[in-house]
Each structure stands twice: as structure tokens, then as C-alpha cells.
Amino acid sequence: MAGTLVANTINTDTGIYSTNNALNGVAKAWVNWDGQTSPNTNIRASYNVSSITYSSTGTWTINFATALSSVNAVCLGTSGYNYLAVSTGDIGACGMLTTSTAWYQNSLGSGSNRNPAVCQFAAFIS
Fold first, then answer.
1. What is the spatial distance between Cα 70 and Cα 100, in angstroms, rounded to a whole number?
2. Do the Cβ atoms of 32 and 120 come closer than 8 Å?
3. Where does residue 121 rank: exposed (0-12), middle (13-18), buried (19+ CB within 10 A)?
4. Sign, Cα dihedral of 108, 114, 120, 123
């Protein structure tokens, strides 16, 4: 079955929800990958991410399948050295490079970079 659904509002059991607000509040790209196991770009799950490029220890470029509308997207990054203790002092930082790429860097509180087992990134823009 193919077709197009057009709706200005969606009725839910808690009220009416504007479709414009729903679309603006959804991540336009996200990815979860293993930064520790070679080649450091094993994507576990993603949306609108075509690939990840490993640059150097703790640093990657995220490539979008479809470009975002602007480089002014809000980017969020999290990381953890392993699944058992995700909160191990790793800090995931990120930002937009172009509408088609973003950067991601993992570092320790001491300032040195490392490749964590759990890397996660998301980009939001209206």
C-alpha cells in the first residue's frame, strides 16, 4: 500500500498535538556505534547516518545520508568506556561541520582522548 498522509493535527487520548511541533522535536539524525573495536566505526543503530569516519584517537566525523537544513543544529553526544559502567568520566562533545557532516570527540576529564565502547550522537533542528 502506498500513499500520502496529510494531517495538521493529531488527536491523542491526552488532547490534540500539532504535527509541526512533533516534527520539529524529533532528531533529524542519530547514531550509536562502537568506537573501541577496530575499525572504530561499527554502527549498532542509526537514523539518517550513512557512515562514520575515524579521524584519530577519540575523534570521528559523522556523515549524514540526507543533509540537514542548516549548520545551526543542536548536537548532543554521550559516551562511555563500556556498557557496564557507562559513566566512567568520558565526555562526548560534538558540533556541525557542514549540513552533511558533524564532528564528535570523546575525551576524559583530564583532557586526553580515548576510544570508548559506547558512542552516541544526535542532531536536532526544525
1. 9
2. yes
3. buried
4. positive
- 44-77 confidence digits (pLDDT tens): 999 999 999 999 999 999 999 999 999 999 999 9
Prediction pTM value: 0.79
Q: Give the per-residue pLDDT at 1.
A: 59
Quick one: cell of 91?
A: 565526555
Distance in angstroms (rounded) separating the CA atoms of residues 65 and 67:
7
Domain boundaries, the chain: 27-124
The residue to which cell 562511555 is assigned: 80
Does residue 24 have a pLDDT over 70? Answer: no
Burial class (CB in 10 A: 0-12, 13-18, 19+), 84: exposed
